[in-house]
Amino acid sequence: MRSHQWLWTNLGIKPVTGWSVDPFGHGSTVPYLLAASGLKGTVIQRIHYAWKQWLALKQYGDFRWVPSWSPSDPYGSILTHNQPFDIYSIKHSCGPHPYICLNFDFRKVQGEYTEYSLKAQTITDKNVKEKAELLLEQYARTGSLFPHNTVLMPLGDDFRYNVKEEWDQQYTNYIKLIDYINSHKDQYKAEVAFGTPSMYFQEIIKRYTQYPTVKGDFFVYSDIFAEGRPAYWSGYFTTRPFMKLLDRELENTLRSAEILYTVALNNAKQNKLTSYSKILERDFEKLILARRNLGLFQHHDAITGTSKSFVMRDYGLKLFEGIRDTINIQQNALQSLVFPNIPIKPDQNLVLSDIERESYEKLSRKTPIQVGPIGANQTRKILIYNSLSRPQEHVIQIRVNTSSVKVTDSEGNDVIYQVNPVWDMTDNTNLWIAADEFEVVFIAKLAELSVTSFNLVYTTSNDDKLATIYCKKCQKKTTILNGENEVKPDILKSNFNIKDIPPGDIQLENNKLKILFNGNTGFMKTVTRKHNPKIMQCGIQFAAYHSAQFHSGAYLFMPDPNEREHEKTFYNSTKIRNLL
């Protein structure tokens, strides 16, 4: 939508047609989003070859695409054109015969040696009739796949029209073919013209008013043209998962920032909070940049993780910048709403996020909040923001520097809470309890679109709030950092009550469920619903497959065809940390 707004603001143009011929499949929300953004039609290409075959057989190449959750033809559907062949290059677009279509890619650039530059001949008065009839034959075959006999033929490819010669070569040769065909309408019963996808939709609506509806998604994408056997494009679902995580994180922080920013800026202007107004107005540029960075990453070779490593690094830096800036915007907005009477200073925040990330390559981590017996650290205010339009009940987990702490609400009333240990896992054989970091856990009831405050208060009488720990191979001592920042076991015994896990299976339950876990593997064995005491048996198994050598990569799910068993169980014994 940001791009649509830019086009309208700067050029006065509202897009009405979509062009999405390269993404590897399409989700069922796509028609809804496109229709909601004002588009009237869209063009797609990469869908399963069986879908293409079925659409061609039924002459359903143009259809109304309906979201899976909607009735047959509601608001939210969009007129969709499926390009009937495998890919959008000229070779695979003019008709069903690629090596005939090569005759009609007229790019000839000095120094380039390609199959089309060898095949295509410049159109002259001597060969125009032959070439026109050859092209029309392909157009006619393509037109037979549609009820209206109208053809949309793309004229391009990746990395094309990057030299001025190609513009002249393609146009000059095609205009000769077009003029010849159009001057012999009585003979060929055809008319050819340069056009746009919007013009195509306008034309077919004149010829054919009722279109079939197709409901749902176009996953998974599969083709067979590359190697002569099906290739399933689902490998990218799990390619570079960390980058996909960053994308979701930026989506979250951006949405939260936009809501808080809107409320805070209007509040600052209405109440003449000059210092806050200036800071928030400056933050608008950061908000725009974060939107652009998130939008950029939606590219089908970005969020899929299928770009080259240096390109993915650039994406990662942009996502990291967006996350950092949107968190900063939230901090400024919250400070203006919670502390309006305290003037804000640049880069001097009273409100700070408890999550920090050093770089896009590292996981985020929680910063311990300093709580102490004297001074300002005796009580620390915690702000929890619910950006949803419905009430929420959340388990809040906060890191603190001491176990001597309790939780109160904004009125000073005690809140039920628990103090958990933070585990040091740097030792591969043992688990140590950190001596200078703890986790406070409590349940917060949050109103819709609200900011709720709680207090962390220093206390010396909360031994009953320390969790009882059941584990294997964990030490009953704590760890500290020495002068070289190396973790060393402290001689002091931990304040937590640590017990060995009894032999046998492990059972967890609440007022609704009783769940039994295998004591050796940690995998779930049975589930019992308390309102219906029937025991449901569960089985969990992990497996792996070997990819076909040199053929799988970032895009494809392609197991090795020479293996008799495509799935190999690789987890059938106790190999996990026995920490529960």
Describe this structure in words.
The structure is a single chain. With 580 residues, the chain is α+β, with helices and mostly antiparallel strands. It folds into 4 domains: 2-227, Glycoside hydrolase 38, N terminal domain (7-stranded beta/alpha barrel); 237-356, Substrate Binding Domain Of Dnak, Chain:A, Domain 2, CATH 1.20.1270; 368-500, Immunoglobulin-like; 508-571, no CATH class. 29% of the residues lie in helices and 23% in strands. The protein has helices at 2-11, 30-36, 49-58, 98-101, 115-119, 128-143, 164-182, 185-188, 197-207, 241-270, 274-296, 309-338, and strands at residues 17-20, 41-44, 62-66, 78-82, 213-215, 222-223, 231-232, 355-356, 365-366, 379-386, 392-400, 405-409, 417-424, 431-446, 450-458, 468-471, 474-481, 487-493, 497-500, 506-509, 513-517, 524-529, 532-537, 542-544, 568-571. A 5-stranded mixed sheet has the order 1-2-4-3-5. The chain is elongated and about 100 Å long. The two termini are 45 Å apart. Residues 571-580 have low confidence and may be disordered.
SSE layout:
Blueprint: H1 2-11, E1 17-20, H2 30-36, E2 41-44, H3 49-58, E3 62-66, E4 78-82, H4 98-101, H5 115-119, H6 128-143, H7 164-182, H8 185-188, H9 197-207, E5 213-215, E6 222-223, E7 231-232, H10 241-270, H11 274-296, H12 309-338, E8 355-356, E9 365-366, E10 379-386, E11 392-400, E12 405-409, E13 417-424, E14 431-446, E15 450-458, E16 468-471, E17 474-481, E18 487-493, E19 497-500, E20 506-509, E21 513-517, E22 524-529, E23 532-537, E24 542-544, E25 568-571
Parallel strand pairs: 1-2, 2-4, 3-5, 14-17, 16-19
Antiparallel strand pairs: 3-4, 6-7, 8-9, 10-15, 11-14, 12-15, 13-14, 17-18, 20-21, 21-22, 22-23, 24-25
Helix pairs in contact: 6-7, 10-11, 10-12, 11-12
Enzyme class: hydrolase
Pfam family, one: Alpha-mann_mid
Subunit structure: Homodimer; disulfide-linked.
